[in-house]
Amino acid sequence: xxxxxxxxxxxxxxxxxxxxxxxxxxxxxxxxxxxxxxxxxxxxxxxxxxxxxxxxxxxxxxxxxxxxxxxxxxxxxxxxxxxxxxxxxxxxxxxxxxxxxxxxxxxxxxxxxxxxxxxxxxxxxxxxxxxxxxxxxxxxxxxxxxxxxxxxxxxxxxxxxxxxxx
Length: 166
Description:
Blueprint: E1 15-16, E2 32-34, E3 38-39, E4 46-47, E5 54-64, E6 72-80, E7 90-99, E8 122-129, E9 131-132, E10 135-136, E11 139-147, E12 153-160, E13 164-165
Antiparallel strand pairs: 1-13, 2-12, 3-11, 4-11, 5-8, 5-12, 6-7, 6-11, 9-10
């Protein structure tokens, strides 16, 4: 069964992830329009300091093109203990897949479309921690792989240690 927006009107639950500019992956406090694979920001690197961090990774879309039915948007939350991010010193902490085509599309199917009514855009909050295989990663970056026919999205992303019901 495909994921669809219910036909009956309802007030969907919402979540608020407090945005702190010091925990944002962008170079500004606004949405970024992206059309090519790469890091968010220039790239923006977050320094979590020493110790374990449990939080949420926010990915907020105000627009995402899927009209050619072959667009792919795969987000990676990366961790490292090397401030220079040398090859081999980086670990994938979280992966999220959006678009008309997904990496394993035969299992989950295509991403649902952005809502056409109600709140504008799409807000996603994914739990994560900066520890994997008993290694705590101090530095974080967000990376996106974009593919398809003229893909484009307008998105903002950050981390937060709190998500509360609004």
